[in-house]
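Cross-posted from the bioinformatics board.
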Amino acid sequence: MFIAELRIENFRIFGEGDKGLLLKLTPGLTALVGENDSGKTAIIDALRLVLGTRDQEAYRVDDADFHQPAEGERRQEIRITSKFEELTLADTAAFAEYLTYEDREGEKHPVLYVNWKAVANARAAGQRRYTLIEVRSGKKADGPQLDQAARLLLCTTYLRPLRDAERAMSAGRGSRLSQILQHTREAQEGTDFDPNTGPPDDLSTLSVLGIGDFANALLRDHPGLRGARDRLNTDYLSNLAFAGKGLEGQISVSGGEGDLRRRQLLEKLELELRDPDAQNMPPNRGLGSNNLLFMTCELLLLGSEEDGFPLLIIEEPEAHLHPQRQLRLIQFLQQQVSAERADGQSIQVLLTTHSPNLASAIKLDNLVLLQRGKAYPLALGRTMLDAGDYAFLERFLDVTKANLFFARGVLIVEGDAENILLPTIARLIGRDLTENGVSIVNVGTVGLRRYARIYQRKDAAADGTIDVPVACVADLDVMPDCAPAILGKVSAGQPLPAANQRRWRALSDFPNNTLATRREDIRARAAGQKVETFVSDKWTLEYDLARCGLAKEMWLAVQLAQDDDKITKGSRSRFGVTRDALKSWEALAEQNYSDDERATHVYATLANEDASKPITAQYLARLLELGGKGRVRTPEQWRTVLPPYLVAAIDYVTVPAAPGDGGAAP
Amino acid sequence: MTASPFTPPEITDEDVAWAAKTLGLPADAFSGPDGTDPRLHILKSVETLDVEACPGSGKTTLLVAKLAILARKWTDARRGVCILSHTNVARREIETSLGFTPEGRRLLCYPHYVGTIHGFVNEFLAVPWLRSLGYPASTIDDQQCEAHRRRLLQLNQFITLRNYVGARENNPQTNLVAAWHVNSPTFDVIKDSGQPEIANANAPSAQQLRALAKKCAEDGFHRYREVFMWANDLLDKHPLIAATIKQRFPMLFIDEVQDNNEFQSALIHRLFIEGDRVAVRQRYGDSNQAIYGHANDKGAESDVFPQDEIRKDVPNSHRFGQQIADIANPLGLVPHGLQGRGPSSAKIASDTSNKHAIFLFTDQTVTRVLEAYAAHLSETFTEQELRDGVFTAVGAVHRPGAEDNVPRFVRHYWPEYDHELTSSEPKPATFFQYVTAGRKTTFESGEAHQAVEKIAEGTIRLARLVNPAARLAARRRRHSQILEALVPQPEVREHYRALVSLLVHPKTDLAANKWDNEWCGKVIAIAGSLAGTAFTRSQQAEFLTWPVAAQAGQQAQKPRRDNFYRYPAASPTVAIRVGSIHSVKGETHTATMLLDTFFHEHHLQELKPWLIGANAGRGNSGVRMQARLKQHYVGMTRPSHLLCLAMRDTFTPQEIETLKARAWRVGRIEQAAVNWL
C-alpha cells in the first residue's frame, strides 16, 4: 500500500478548509520542492505525527504548531488525515476493522484512512491543561480508534536533515545498526556454538551468536585474560563480597540470554565505510559519506522487512553530499522504489529538497511544487503538460533550469542575450530580480512553452493556480519594411519575394490587423493562470532596444562585440574601440534616417551574424550598468527608453521595492 | 487471492506445564495423574478439531490455557488468533484468569480478536461496510431500533405506512414494528417469518417502508440480525474480504459452538471455510447443551458440530459425582455416558450423596419452595460451607408473562424477583436499574470499573432517548467516551465524574429524595450536553423513575435489590441467587435448584419420563422437546454437590417410589415443613 492522500488542517502554515493542504501522492518517489517557508517541513512533521517514526524519537505537538490565521484567534484543533490505497491482502487483513470501502470504476476497493486529531487546551481536572490526541479510522473519522499495535505497523523511517550519521552507525547501546541487523533475517541464520562439542569444522557456518559464544570460550581460556580475571576476582572482588553472596567478574563479548545476548553482541558492531584501494583506514569518514551509509542501511532494513509500512521520509538528502553524489543517490532511490519486496510491497519515498541538482535529476512526474502552503503535484494529468512534454523536459530540464522550482517568480527567455540583459534592465527600473527571488530560465531556441506549462494546472478550479508569476519573453520577429533592403535580402526598390519563398517576415506582410493576430497567436501559446507571454513590440530584443531609445548604446555594444577577439587578445583597447564607435555613431546619426532605418542599421551586424548576440549583450549590460551608476537616468526615465514589453514582463514577475528597502535604484 | 501460508506455533510439554502454573492449576491438570487424560492431546493440538466436552470438563479452562500458550509464542504483528463465542464468557474468562499476565493482555488486543460472533461481524464486516455506504452504525439493538422506527413513523412522509401499521396493531399482543428486519441493501423489509411485510413491493406503503428503513439506517440504528445481512452484502460485493479475514486470522477458535444459530454458522462458514479453508479451526462445545437466547432461533444446519472425523471427546467431569451424572445423563440428546469424577472436597466437604431432592408443591405452597430449599441447604451444609458456596435457583422462563399456568415464570416462586437484573447482558429499563446492575457486579467482583461502565451506558442511553440523531458512536468504553465528549464543557464533565464516583461507592444510599433533589438534575444536564439538546425530567419520566422503596425511613433494613434470596430473613446464613437457566450457562454451583416453569407446557412435568428412567436421549422427540431437554440438561449439570428440582405435585405413589429408587429424595411442601416421603 502507499499513501495516496494527505490532508492537513490548522497545522502551522496550513489553515482550514480551502486554506488547508490537500496533497495527492503517487507510489514510489515523491520530492517536495519549493522555497523556504512553503510548508515542506510542516508536511513531513504532519506525517511524523500521524504515522509515528521508527527511531522512537517521539515528536510532540507544541502550542505553536496550531495554526495562527492572519486574522482571528489561534486555532484549537489540528486535523491530519492520511489515506492509503492499493492495499495488499496482508494490508487489508491487518487493518480489516479499520477499512473504508470506496467506489472506483464501479467496484468497491478497500482503503485505509488514518485521522489524527489534536485538540489544544483540553482541560483535565482543575486548571491543568493538555493536548488531547485522537487517532481514528474512517473517511469522516467516524471509524474506530486505531489500536496502538496497529499504529506501530504504520511507522515510517524518518531521516532528519543534518542527521548525526556517525553516531547512528557506531557501536553502543541501542545503536541503529544493531536494530537494523536484528531485523535482518540473514543475521539470525547459522549454527550456534556448542561448548561441549567445540566449534564446527567450517567456522563460516557459525551464527552471529555462535561467533560470540566461540569468542567467549576462546577469551575465557586465554591465559593472559584468565590471569587478569582471576586476579580481579580473588584479590579484589572477593574482598568486597558478603558472606554467602559471591561477586565474580567475567570477561566476555556478551553475556545475557537469548535475544538479549544477540542484541548486546550486535551493539558491539560498528559500520565503517572503506575505500578498497586505501592503504590505511582513516579514523573518521566525512559527514557526507556517513550520511550515505546511514541511508543505505535504512533502505536495507526497509527492503528486507516483511511487515510494516515501507515509507521512507528523507529531509534534504543533499546534506553534506557533493552534486555528483546527489545524482547517484537519486538514481539509487529511484531504483529502490521500483523493486518489489517479498511481501509484494514497494518502498515509498518522500523527500524534501532545496537542491536544484536533486530536483533536476528527479522525474518531473515525481515532483510536488510547494508554494505558500499549497501543494501542486507535477504528475502527468495534473499539469497542462502532455506526455511528449514530460519526455522533452526530462531530457532538457537541467540543474540551471531546475532553479525555477525554488523561485517566487520566473522569467522564461529564448536566448542568452535576454538572460544576460534582463537582470541589468530590471535593476535599472527598480525591480531587482534577486531581491524578488526571480529565476531566469534560458531555454535556448526550443521549448519555451513547455517550461511555462509546468506552471499551468489542468484543473485549476479544483487545484487552484500556482501563485508564481511566470513571464515568457518572445520575439515578434517582424522586421520593418526598410530592413530587407538594408540587410541585403533584396535589392533596393525591388518587391519582396513571395512569402513562402523566405523564412523572414516584414511589416508589409501583415496588412490590416493581421499583425495583432500574429502577436496574439504567439501570446496565446503560453498564457493563462499565472503564466503570461510578453511579445516584443517590433522584431527582436536587440532591434527593439535600439528602436526604442538605446540605439547609441546598442551601436557601441555591437562595435565592441565585433572587436571582442582583439580586445581580449590585447591588440586593441576597449577605449580605442569605443572612441571609434562613437565617431561612427555620429556619422550614422547625421544620416537622414527614419527611426526604423537607423535601428535597422544598428542591428544589421547582429542580424547578419557578423557579431555575437551574447557578447553584444554583455557589453550592453556593462554600458547600461555604467549608466545606472552614473545616474544618467532615473528608473522612470529608464522605463521610457526601454522596450515596453520588457518592462511589462519584469513588472509582471516582481513587486515594487518598498520605500527604504534599499533597492539598487535610487 | 488466497491467504499466505501459516505455520502454527508448536505446543510442547513445557508450555503445558507453564500454562498450568500460570492458571494456578496442579501440574497434572491437563495430563491427568497417569498422563492419559484426553485433555492433554487436545491442548497440544494445533490442528483442526471438534471438541465435544461434557459439562464440568473444564472446556473453557482448556481453551484459555491453549490461548495463553499461543499468545506467548505468537510472533506475527499483522495476523492474529480469532476466538468466537456466543456470549462474552470466553473473553471474561481470559480477563479474570489471565488479565494480570502479559500473555492475557496481548490476547485481548490487536491483532487478536476475542469476543462474540456478533461483535466480530460488527467490527470486521458490517460496521466498516455500513460506514463506507454512509450509514453510521452507532446503535445496534433490537429494542432501540424498534423505538426509533416508531418515532420515524410519526413523520408526515410516512402517513400511509402509519395507517397500515395502526390498522394491524389493534391488540396489545401484536407488534408489527418489532418484527421488521431489513433484508436487503435496498431496504426490503421482511417479518420474523421471512415473508415480506408488504407483498406488493410497489404499493405506497411498501415504498414508505423502504424509505423509513433507509432513514433509520442513516440515523445509525440497526437490528442484530440486519448486521448479518450487511456482512453478507459486503461478501457479495467484495468477495476478497473472506481471504482478508483468513489472512488476518489463520487460527479460529469457536467456543460454545453448539449455541451458534443458522445465521452465525452460515456466515462463519462463508468467511472461514468456503473456498480455501482457514488454516486451523478448533471448535469447542457440547451438543447436548445447545440453548439459544431466542425461542424461535434455529440451530445451525450448515456446518454441523461435531464432525465425526475430527471429533475429540472429553466425557469425564471434574465438577460433580456419579449420582448427578446419572440423573443428568438421560437428558442429553445423545447421552455421553457422563462420568462424574468430582466433586472436589477442597472447599465443600459435606457428603451430599443421596441428598438430591425433588420438592413437590401446590398453588398454595409455591411461594414457599425457596424457603424449603434453603432449609434443606442449611441441613446439608455446614455454616462455613453456606458462606463459601454458590447456591442458585433457576428456571427456564424468567421474564414475566401471563398470570395463568402458575408457575409460569420465576417470579411466581418469589414476587421480589426482577428479571432485568439477571439476564447475562442486562438491558435495564431505567437509569436506576443501570446503577443497581452496575453496583451488583462491582459488589461481587470488588472492581469499580464495571459499575462505572454501567452508569456511563445508562447516561448514553438517556442521551440517545432524548436525541436519537445525537452523534454518539457505539464504543466499547462508554465512560471514556463521555469524558472525551464533555471536554468542551469542563463543568458538566466535573459533575459527571463526581456523580459517578458517588453512585459507585458502596456506602452511598440510593435514596429517592437525593435523586429527586440532587442527582436527577445533574444526570439531565449531563445527558443534555451529550445529546446536544436540553430536556426536562417529565419528558423522560419513565427512564428517570427512581423507586420509592429505596427511600429513607427503612434505614435499618434496606431492601437489597440483587435477586438474592436470603434465609432466614432475620439473620441470613445462606444467600440463594435466583435467575434463569440461560443466565447460569457455563457456571458451576455448589447446589442448584431447577424451578419448573411454563412454555407451552410445564417443562419439568414434560420431562417426567426422563426423570423416572422411562426415556433416555432425544428418541423421536420434536424440536420443542429437544430444546427443553437441552435447557434442563444445562441446569442439571451446574451443581458440583447438590441438585434439587421443584415441581407441581402430580406424581403417583408408584412414580415416587421409582424416583426414590433412582437416589432422589422426594419431599412434599406442607404448611409446617417439608414432609419427606
